[in-house]
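Dear all,

This email documents one entry for the complex benchmark we are building for the journal club exercise. For each entry we list the sequence lines for every component of the assembly. Then comes the predicted three-dimensional structure of the complex as a token string, followed by one or two observations. Please use this as the template for your own entries, and keep the labels exactly as they appear.
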Amino acid sequence: MYLDPDKRVDLATAASYVHDGHMIALGGGLSARLPMAMVRELIRQGRRDLHVVGSAHSMDVDLLIAAGALAICEESYVGFEQDLGLAPAYRRAAETGTITVKESCCVTILTQLRAAEMGLPFLPVRGIKGTDMRRLHPEYAETTCPFTGEVLVAVPPLKPDVAIIHAPVGDAFGNLFMEQPYVLDEHFAGASNSVIATVEKIVPTEELHDRGVVIPGYFVQAIAEVPFGAHPASCYPSYSYDRAHMSTYVQAAAKPESADGYVADWVNVPGGEDEYRNKVGAESLTRLTQWSESIDQWKGLFS
Amino acid sequence: MSSYTFDEWYVIRLARTISDREVVFHGFASPCAQVAMHVAKRTHAPNMMLIEGAMYAINPDPPFIPPTSNDSSLKRGAAYSMRFEEFFDAAIRGDVDRMFVSGGQIDMYGNTNVTAVGPLERPKVKLGGGGGGCNISATIKQLTLWTTRHRSGRTIVAECDFITDIGHRTPAGTREELDYTGGGPQCLVSELGVFDYDSQGRMRLQELWPDVTVEQVREATGFEFAVADEVIPVAPPTQAELDVLRAIDPLGVRRGEFDPREMEREFDLVGAGV
């Protein structure tokens, strides 16, 4: 438990809690609430050999791979859905063997996090039998139910070193409010050794209580205020996702040279996140925040 | 005379695999299934419980379908938003009636591969991954399998290179032998035809689109499949179904699932019961 009443730090300090070789869990999912500013900062700080676990993700994982920061990927899906397609850097790294793919299933990951949350040495899942998933997971075993005799696949606890979570608002203690879907974030917080959080805005605790606490601050080791910290993913209610930027990334990531170019142009910039936001441009960012003005405005962000 | 395109008819056929009062779920990255569920809810299955794929929102009324399945527009008007674990717990304990499943490869028993084509250590194509399908395909009561890529010849194959989601039987055994409580694939809807599964769990041709021949289906399929005694044409859509579909998917995200040549298939709306 992290009981320091004031855990506010800057982004670079928060990122320093993640070490080379750590198992990390990234919050959010698909195109929503991805901790992109922290992902960029980890790349700037040259982090290596990370092992990422989670459910269905996209640019956060792909960018870590493009920048050479990832060694093991244990997600249930990495991609840009039907819209922008397969994840280019993930695909290339998996096909050339430069990362270890331990693809998993949302239910298995959830069960493993629950085992860690409960301090148990394993939990059973009903599925997996008959599929090829165990070829990717020699650590799974079988267990026989002492009551019914049913043979089930047993999975070990998953205890990430650090969970990295982005939320719209938080307070100095690290309490976090977010909108649904929370995806696995609550379980990441309970199962991990620590949480480092980034938020759009740090607010007084009374104001946060009015919104509701989703992740309690006692799980959180450090909190940093980073506006547009999920960009180009969405962070509702603050902003929608930046489909045009994601598309730019996917095109760049298709080739190693242009992927390097993206990392050089958008991530490894001397001015860090300030420079990143300036480069994206105030006009583009403001447009993403105006999704709620009308249905046409909202729809227009996706056409 | 009004006309409609193949993507519209295909989604409406998918919608018709849903019965009223079913609890139905689609995975992410599958706009055809997603749009089909909203069409069913607004036409023949008003009392279904629609669970949005990555939002876990129940019976939402989205103003449009966005190109990503984790967007707040998809929970607008929802009766409830399930937590991630509330949905997956319901699915593994058997409270979900139907799920839509697709794959880069689908074999004759309805096993699907969304993990990797080619050798696992050095895949020819690393696919995105299966989300939660590996576990919940074992326990959800019925699966509607679907693909828009049958014609490629690479999708409906004798054996999957990797089994991510389980069909009726795998080399490890049948569903019964594996203690699986779900019923497995009920049907497969492809852009060439509609199939069911026989008592041995093998794919069998039931319906054909009017511009496709059995021979064309054979050419595109990696194994000999059974053919029903009477193969019937797919029933045409109604004007009401087309209206609902066009209203719910104004951005046309469903079209992203199709090879461009499928989009040239156009049909006239004649004598349809409106």
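Observations: Residues 31-42 of chain B form the longest helix (12 residues). Chain B touches chain A through 65 residues (CB under 8 Å).
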